[in-house]
Amino acid sequence: MANVGLLYVGAVLFLNGMMLLGKVAPKAAAMLNLFVGAMQVVFPTVLIATAGKDTRTILAASGLYLFGFTYLYVGIGLLTGIDTSGVGYFSLFVAVMAVGYAIVNFRILRDPPFGVIWLYWAFLWFLFFVLLGLKVEGITTYTGWVTAIEGWVTGAIPAILLLCGYWGTHTPVAVLLAVFAVVVFGGLWFMVGPGRHVRHRPGGVAAPGRP
C-alpha cells in the first residue's frame, strides 16, 4: 500500500516541479496535490489500524502523514491563493522530522537507501521553507528542478522497483544515491542558482513529500 502511495508522490513532485518552472498553472496542479494528499492520509491510517502490535510498521507508516498533510495544504493553497508562509514553515518542521526518519531507516529499519532518500526529502523541504516561508524567490528555478528530479529518483523509480520486487536495502545503492545527489544538485546550483536564469514563482505553492 505504501509503495503505491510512493508512486503517486513521485507524480505530484514532478508536477509541482513543472509548476515552479512555469510549465503548469498553479490551479492545474492543485487537484493532483489534493488527490495524493488524501491518499497519503488514508493509507497510513489503514496501515496503523491493521498493524496490531507491529511497532515497526507503525513507525514506518507514521511518516506518511507528513506527505499527506503537506499535499493537502498545498492543494488548498493553490486553489485559494492564501499566503505561502504557513506551508513554508510547516516544511521546516517536516525537514527536521525527515532527518529523524533518515536516522530511523539507517539504525532501526536497516534500509540505508531509504535513509538517503529521507535526506533527499529533508533537503527538498528545507528548500520549500526558504522559498515559501522566507520568500527567497531567487531559488525558484533551482527548487523546481530539484523537485522534478526527486519525483523520479525518490518516488516513481523506487516505487516501481519495490512493486516489482527488485528493490534492495544494500549499502552500495545508498552510496550511489548520495553521490547522485551531490553531483546533480550541486551542479544545478551553479547552473540555475540565485541570479542565474531566475523565474518568478507562480502564484500559489508547491511542495515535497513521501509516502
Notes on the structure:
This protein has 211 residues and is mainly alpha-helical. It has a single domain, classed as Alpha Horseshoe (Serine Threonine Protein Phosphatase 5, Tetratricopeptide repeat). Helix content is 75%, strand content 0%. It has eight helices and no strands. The protein has helices spanning 2-20, 26-49, 55-62, 64-80, 85-107, 112-133, 140-163, 171-192. It is globular. The protein starts with a helix and ends in a 19-residue tail after the last helix.
Q: Would you identify the regions where 5 or more consecutive residues have pLDDT less than 50?
A: 197-204, 206-211
CATH topology: Serine Threonine Protein Phosphatase 5, Tetratricopeptide repeat
| Main sheet characteristics | none
Radius of gyration over all CA atoms, rounded: 16 Å
Task: Give the overall average pLDDT.
Answer: 91
Strand content: under 5%
Main location: membrane
Family: Belongs to the AmiS/UreI family.
Keywords: Cell membrane, Membrane, Transmembrane, Transmembrane helix, Transport
Subcellular location: Cell membrane
Provide the descriptors you would attach to this structure in a database record.
211 residues, mainly alpha, Serine Threonine Protein Phosphatase 5, Tetratricopeptide repeat, 8 helices, globular, disordered C terminus
Q: What's the gist of this structure?
A:
The chain has 211 residues and is mainly α. The chain contains eight helices and no strands.
